Amino acid sequence: MAEEITVRPAVTADAPALSELVIAVLYASNLADYGAENVARVAGHFSVEDVKTMLGNRHATFVALQGDRIVGTASLDLDEYGQTAAVKTIFVDARMQRLGIGARLYAHVVAKAAESGINRFTVRSSIVGIPFYERLGFVSVRDHWDGTERTVEMRN
Predict the structure, then answer these.
(1) Is the dihedral of CA 135, 141, 142, 144 positive or negative?
(2) Residue 130 Cα to chain centre, angstroms
(3) Is-contact 8 65, C-beta < 8 A?
(4) What's 129's DSSP letter?
(5) What is the dihedral of CA 64, 70, 74, 76, to 10 degrees?
(6) Tens of pLDDT along 5-45?
(7) Beta partners for 7?
(8) Which pairing describes strands 149-155 and 121-125: parallel, antiparallel, or unpaired?
(9) φ and ψ of 106, to 5 deg
């Protein structure tokens, strides 16, 4: 990595870059496991407007930057009582995966949840994401199916 990676909270102005990043990562990382139809359906939930809405609804969203370019994102949701936390998304530019960026983003999510006294998390992982979450200490709990799309609920 030529330029240092920094992490900061996401802002609404990040929505176009986040939309582009997430859609690119979905196609680069998930196409083999899920097929074009499923990936296109999921990508359809990450338009710029959808991302703006998500930014307003999430407890916290972070972006990883290389210079001024967003290369990763992670977000956190708390249940309505603030008792449990869900890692909602961790996406890292496919060209920069396995460089520790996802783990750094996850550390920010953990720190934010700790402010509310929470240290237990769930995540619905794609197939390709399972080894990443296992390295963070998550274990598979059960499969979820949306048509032919399988995700795996994991807990730490």
Answers:
(1) negative
(2) 13
(3) yes
(4) T
(5) 100
(6) 999 999 999 999 999 999 999 999 888 888 888 889 888 89
(7) 64
(8) antiparallel
(9) -60, -40
